[in-house]
Structure formats: C-alpha cells, structure tokens
Specification:
The chain has 294 residues and is α/β, with parallel strands linked by helices. The protein has helices at residues 51-61, 124-127, 144-148, 150-156, 159-164, 189-202, 221-229, 243-252, and strands at 5-14, 18-27, 30-36, 39-46, 71-76, 90-95, 111-112, 142-143, 168-174, 180-186, 211-215, 234-237, 255-261, 264-269, 274-275.
Length: 294
C-alpha cells in the first residue's frame, strides 16, 4: 500500500488491564503543493494517492476548469527539494489551450489542513464560487430504501480505513441504478471529494447529472459547493450538515440528506427527490448518457 499507510510502535493501555506494546498502522498525511503552469496555487494536507485526480477536482472546485479538455496534463516536479530529490509532493498542472490561468486572488500562501478545507478564507463572500452547472432542474428521483443502502456500501469499500480507522471517504453513486461509480479515501474529507470529482473530470463525465455524492462525515458548506461545481444534485452524509450547507443547497436546488444511518435519514433540502416504491413506477429515465465503472 506504499505511502498510504505506515507502521508505528504504540502502547495500548487498558484501565485495570495493564499496557501492551505492539505495532499499529497509521494513515499517511503529507503536504501536496499544487502548481499551475509553474506557479504555486495551494498546499493541501492529504493522503498520497490519486494526486492527479485531487488536483483536477480542486481546480474544478475553485472554478478554474469545468471540462476534461481543460486539464491537459500534470506531472510531479523533479528536484522538488534543494538536493534534487523528487518527493512526489509537488504537482504542476498544465491547463488546456485557451484556458485562462487562475486569478491571482486564488493563490493561497498557507496550508489547507486535512481537517478544514476553507481555513484562511476571510469571509463567505470570498469562498462562494459560481458553478458552470445548475442542479435545480436535475430530474433525479431516488427511492429512500436504495439511498439507505449507500452508507454500508461506502463503509465496505473503505480498505484503508479498515486498517487505520483514520480516513474519510467519498463515493459517487448512480442515482437511478444505485451503482457505485467510484470511491476515494483521504485524511481530508474535502480531498476525498476532490479525488472523486477529478476522477469524473478525467473521464469527461461532468456535469454529474443524476448522481448522489455520499460522504462519511458531515456535510459542510465546502462539500456542498464542491458538489455544485461538479453538477451533482444530491449530497448525502452519515452525519449532520451545517447551516450554511443547507442554505446553499436550498438556494441552488440541491438535495441534502444527513444522519443517513440504517433505515433512517433526515432531509434538509430538496425532499422532492426522495420517492416511495409506489412512485418509482413513474420514475424519470436517468439523464446520464454514460456510466463508466471504475
């Protein structure tokens, strides 16, 4: 599993039962500097793996790109350190012909931590990004019973979490068939979503009409915005959404479901997209023209 996990000696203490020295597995967290055309744009703390997808999804989230052809290439920078070593922690993206370079105001001279994707942005006006896609008119309808199956399938696909207990996950499901299209893990919930969006961009699947984004933690404003930037009409989370996430979702016509656990869920916006078994007989066909399995 390479740099995704590391082994460390730990001491497990049980009150009344003594201490045991053993080896444990930890999820790796390392910085990734994202450059565009040689110019540094951001540094994010992430779990190594699917870095090109992460960079692509980040650029979609920031409104820099919105189509597969906008992302021409990416490469790890050789000689990233003073002694010429390639750490695979500096990634330079080449944009497609005619794609404008990122606005200088997007350059972030600080770390985006694995716990908070928006740290350092001063106000909500500064973080709100307009999407190239609208989700309000997406005809997606999904049965609540089908939706309720997604958390267990998300959890079953978290291979690294199974070993470490320390990673978030994001998965994209086809809302009509329930097919799991892609799943990504990362120490940062926002990075996991960026990796999902970047995967879709590489396959030229944006906008992601008729899909459900399932996340393992809470539904924050940032994750709602990232879903919007990718044209995803439905965000589901095993934990609670924030007030700002619900406000944004209501404004743009996105469905947000929280506390999705077992047969229970709470719908915070867009409840018209949840239908019963009886209503499924009159279900609209999926608007997705192509479904690509990972």
């Amino acid at each position: 599993m390479g740099r995704i996990t590391v082994r460390r000696k730990v001491t497990r203490i049980t009150v009344g039962g003594g201490a045991v020295r053993r080896e444990d597995v930890l999820a790796v967290e390392e910085p990734l500097e994202i450059r565009v055309g040689g110019t540094a744009l951001a540094i994010t703390m992430r779990t190594p793996g699917h870095d090109f997808d992460l960079a692509a999804g980040f650029l979609v989230s920031e409104g820099v790109i919105s189509r597969g052809e906008h992302f021409a290439a990416a490469r790890y920078c050789a000689g990233a350190t003073v002694d010429g070593e390639n750490t695979y922690n500096v990634l330079d993206v080449t944009l497609g012909v005619g794609v404008p370079r990122p606005d200088p105001s997007l350059e972030r001279n600080f770390f985006t931590t694995s716990s908070c994707g928006l740290c350092g942005k001063a106000s909500i006006d500064a973080v709100r990004t307009l999407s190239a896609y609208t989700v309000a008119e997406d005809p997606l309808r999904i049965d609540a019973e089908l939706l309720a199956s997604f958390p267990d399938r998300l959890r079953a696909g978290q291979d690294v979490f199974e070993k470490t207990g320390g990673l978030h996950a994001a998965a994209l499901f086809d809302g009509r068939t329930g097919e799991l299209l892609v799943l990504r893990e990362d120490v940062g919930r926002h990075n996991a979503v960026d990796k999902v969006v970047g995967w879709a961009l590489a396959l030229d699947l944006l906008p992601l009409r008729g899909t459900v984004l399932m996340v393992s933690g809470r539904a924050s404003f940032e994750l709602t915005q990232k879903a919007s930037m990718a044209g995803i009409p439905f965000l589901a989370a095993v934990s609670a959404p924030s007030s700002l996430a619900v406000e944004l979702a209501t404004e743009i016509g996105m469905t947000v479901v929280g506390f999705l656990r077992g047969p229970s869920m709470v719908v915070y916006s867009g409840d018209e997209r949840l239908v019963s078994d009886a209503a499924r007989s009159a279900e609209l066909p999926s608007s997705r023209e192509k479904v690509v399995a990972e």
